Amino acid sequence: MMRKTSLSVAAAPLGLSILWALSTCHLSADAFALKSRWSTFAPTTLFSQIGLQQQQSTTAATVAKNDSWMTQPLLNPLSQFVKGPKECLVFDTTLRDGTQGESVSASCDDKLKIATRLSSFDVDYIEAGWPGSNPKDAEFFQRAQTELPAEARSKLVAFGSSRRKNVAVEDDPQIQALVDSNVPTICMVVKAHPWQVTEILRATREENLQMIHSSVEYLVKLGKTVLVDLEHFFDGYKVDPEYALACCEAAVDAGASCLVMCDTNGGTMPWEVDQTTRKMLQHFEPFCTIGVHCHNDCGMAVANSITACHAGVGLIQGTINGIGERTGNADLCSIVPSLALHVNTTMACNDQLSELTQVSRYVDEILNRSPNNAAPFVGQSAFAHKGGLHVAAMERNPLSYQHVEPELVGNEMRVLISELSGRQNIMGKLQEIFGNSMDDGQKSARSLAILNRVKELENMGYQFEGADASVHLMMLHTTRGYCPPFQVLDYSAQVYDANMDSASRVVSNLHGGLKSASTARATIKVRTVVDDPETSQLSFVENLQVSDGNGPVDALAKALLKALLPAHPFLDSVELIDYKVRILDPNSATEAVTRVMIEFRDSETDKQWTTVSVDSNVVSASLNALIDGFEYALIEQAQLCMLCDDAFEDEQRQ
Ligand SMILES: [Zn+2]
């Protein structure tokens, strides 16, 4: 039945439109033949799109006017045909497909925060959930109406599937939930693979086409912009291109604005994406925009998305940091800057590109995930250089080992220091810290001494390449006249447990959860440099503080912060985000040397830094790493670095 040509059926009632379409749109003969497939099942034609588009926009305008929550008229980016690689729309699905990733979970509050951030980053669409599938998503769409800014609301997309078999579209509760979500745009997933239709959906091929058509048509008539996610499209196109195209045509004929080719199982190769995309454009240009949605099962999601854009798709779906089911979705943090900086694609978010690293870290932070340091463009190591030869070349020209300037995506270049690094790396770091206040001769002389010190400390178990802040401080501490903003004069930490019952501790933990009965208390005495605003003189104040905590390190961190806050209230925004302890010589059992690395973050500026310390006593290693972390915060964030004269240095040493 599918193969039977019914050109006459398609052509007869709308012969004039067809002629018009052929003469003005240069529609390919393929598309003409294609029409016959869908029209085997329905009397309307693809070419009625031209009339339908007009009717659709009128309906959309009427409905938009009546939509009380929409305070601003919506400028729908899909009202015009969009074609890459010169232009591309960015469709973010972090809050829908992204949250299907393992151990990714977002509360309704989290979703509202992320949607707001994505909107100010200027993505074109924010797919926020499937209102018909769970109450949390339905709650999101309801709260979004009053809690999201107008611009974010206008970009929201609700996700759903085509109507159920044998159920009228208006009676399908899942479709009704899409209508109730009260957002302007719907992304509807439909089956486009014949085997998936008959085996998984248990529908006939014809029934599936009718389900697609009636579902899209219903929502379009209500004024919604409908994008159609063609599930398993690339696989379906391989086994039965005619049927895959008939599914597309059913959607377009019903008024879909965008056909999104999905590589649902992630097994498609870039050249297959290229060929299929070009075929799709031939068939559907300029009736609707073609989009792409890739999964990363072969590590190809970014490559496939960019290939598709290069071949002509005008919309790319993906997630921030590539989160998503199994190995994840296409990572917008790689796609957007690649398109902007290497393909010269125009996207609405091009102007916000320098916020990309911040957006990536913000989403990780809200979703409580550790950032991927090796992530292209936005990872901490994306522009980090360790090889001495590289660093030497970079001194001459920063682009010698970087494909773009890190600042363009809001990241920064880092020179890593380790025993493997050459003196040039240390010279680079000295340049970063002291600029031109130290001449080349001085830098060269000091770099040798510092390199030797690095080698000595790494031999003891330090590891500097992950701890920029400690390298920075080591360089300052070995600089004559450096005055640290505070000093810890003494400290003590105690742990006591009133209910210790070692025999039954596992059982009691099982019953009482993981809450420990032990308490730790730390006392710390700190001498801080303060700037007297009246006399403009620097002086010292001593401050003794006591704090309780979950363990000795927690108690010490709290006591130290309490002692520093009166003089440096800005430290309030500094938080500890990671604490790692590594036993360096496990054979020495409890006397082993431990390395502690602590990661800090300033929630105001989103800057992160790491410190390292090594000691046979884990508490004192932790305290040293804590001190480094706060000292670095004062120097870097508050610009409190003091290189004082000799007299001041003498006073400090007393
Ligand atoms: Zn997906």
UniProtKB/TrEMBL annotation:
Any one Gene Ontology BP term: L-leucine biosynthetic process
Similarity section: Belongs to the alpha-IPM synthase/homocitrate synthase family.
Record's keyword terms, sorted: Amino-acid biosynthesis, Signal, Transferase
UniProt keyword annotation of Repeat present: no
Official protein name in the record: (R)-citramalate synthase
SMART domains (UniProt xref): LeuA_dimer
Record organism: Nitzschia inconspicua
Record-linked Pfam families: HCS_D2 (PF22617), HMGL-like (PF00682), LeuA_dimer (PF08502)
Annotated PROSITE patterns: AIPM_HOMOCIT_SYNTH_1 (PS00815), AIPM_HOMOCIT_SYNTH_2 (PS00816), PYR_CT (PS50991)
CDD domains found in the cross-reference section: DRE_TIM_LeuA3
Record lineage: Eukaryota, Sar, Stramenopiles, Ochrophyta, Bacillariophyta
GO molecular function: (R)-citramalate synthase activity; 2-isopropylmalate synthase activity
